[in-house]
Design a protein that fits this description.
This protein is 36% helix and 27% strand. The protein is built from 11 helices and 16 strands. The strands form 4 sheets. A 6-stranded mixed sheet has the order 8-9-10-5-11-12, covered by helices on one side. Strands 4-3-6-7 form a 4-stranded antiparallel sheet. A hairpin with a 2-residue loop joins strand 11 and strand 12. The chain is elongated and about 75 Å long.
Amino acid sequence: MKQDQLGGGTAVSPPTILSAHNLRKSYGGAPALRGLSFTLQAGRVLGFLGPNGAGKTTAIRILTTILESSSGEFSVDGVSSRQPEKIRRKIGVLPESLGFPKQMTATEYLIYFGRHYGHSTATAKAHAAALLMEVGLAQRANSLIGSYSRGMRQRLGIARALVNDPVVVFLDEPTLGLDPRGKQELLVLVRRIATQRQAGVILCSHLLAEVEEVCDDVVILRQGQVVARGTVAEVMQNAQSGAARIHVPVDSVAQTEALLTQQPEVTAVSTHNGKDGWLDIHLAADVTPHQLNHLLGSLIAADIPVLHFEGENGRLQDVFFQLTEEANA
């Protein structure tokens, strides 16, 4: 527990509501998941990342009890993976492709699932109304689902995932196909589910910017193995502590490269992804912010126009590419 620095008391850490230990899965002798271990606390959003074939889908299917692992175990809210029926009552799932009955209203749809979880018709109806209010669909509660936009259907899918008041919610590509405004509104909803319900949320997404925006923690998989896990800030910091990127006019590239390679804190300079005018600066591991300032100052003193300068550990996308590049080689 952490000491409360202001009040002198203790601040209790949120409880761990999902814990996975050494989960493994093979298909015909070929390993798809190699020892997945992580924890998720109440009220936090965890981003699940990895290139195609990294093992994300296999992991999610195991954690949602669709598949059995070859070995290892996990628990949800203290319930062991050896009791999948009980776990299903504690989780909510929005799959990437979720079909909806077009001739039902949203209220009828949610009442059906509420009754499935044992609620009376009256209780299921009241719960459906509350859920539709929570996801912003109250005004369209009695409209046919067939008249819904993609964004409205995604919101309804999230409401469906919340029918049983789950402690862990799995959202697979929830913003796929939405316009920028729809994506932003849905991410706000995801954040609200975690904070107001104190549920744990596992968010699978290929959009790294939105993971960086909404997630507290991240797990990155490559070829079935965890290559990074921790808070988003920790993963970005640990992956690249000695790199920067600079953009200069094309006719200044040669001069910039020559000047940079003379600096003691620079170990190498290379073209960034073949882009004209962009250079990756590889730095000594113990480089300080003051040294970076000096480096930038030396370029300015040489009258080299600096169009852009950034430390690479500030972007989750760069970290993701660095950690998964072997899978794409």
